[in-house]
Amino acid sequence: MSEVVEEPAGLGERGRRMWRESLAIWSLTPAHLVLLEEACRIADRLDLLNSMLRSLTVDVNPDVEQFGEISGLLAESRSQSSALKLLLAEIRQGQTGSAPAKETPAGGVGVHDLTRRIAERKRKAEG
């Protein structure tokens, strides 16, 4: 995708940074741009949840009501983090990007590479 993609309205600082940096390394399909937008909004939401948690945990001994709020915020934060992780995995799979995938220390970049390496080892063992 070579056209300039406009930044979605309403993103916070973290979401805008994520949008810019993602588009700098990837070229995404329109469907994956929608996923990226949602991922950016979740990143902003995680910042908000974090600031709420920090404001509640200033007290050394929170009362029972605050403990319930903290527990709920932590649960929502975990949920949003999981959603972000899944969206980013989907986006990475859908990239038509310009930047090559970085290899892991083991030499691979994912399931396809692992499958290739297993097949190579089998061929070496058989041959």
Write the layout of secondary structure elements.
Elements: H1 13-25, H2 30-56, H3 64-94, H4 111-126
Helix pairs in contact: 1-2, 2-3
H/I helix tally: 4
Shape: flat
Q: Show unreliable segments.
A: 97-110
Quote the distance from N terminus to C terminus: 44 Å
- Biggest β-sheet: count, sense, barrel? none
* Mean residue pLDDT: 81
Question: How would you name the oligomeric state of the polypeptide chains in this document?
Answer: single chain
Q: Report the radius of gyration as a whole number of Å.
A: 20 Å
Taken as a percent bin, the fraction of beta residues is under 5%
Domain module tally: 2
H/E element string? HHHH
Strand elements, count: 0
Class based on secondary structure composition and strand pairing: mainly alpha
Overall helicity: 55-70%
Descriptive report:
With 127 residues, this protein is mainly α. It folds into two domains: 13-96; 103-127, no CATH class. Helices cover 69% and strands 0% of the residues.
Briefly summarize what is shown.
This protein has 127 residues and is an all-alpha fold.
Notable characteristics:
4 helices; 127 residues; 2 domains; mainly alpha
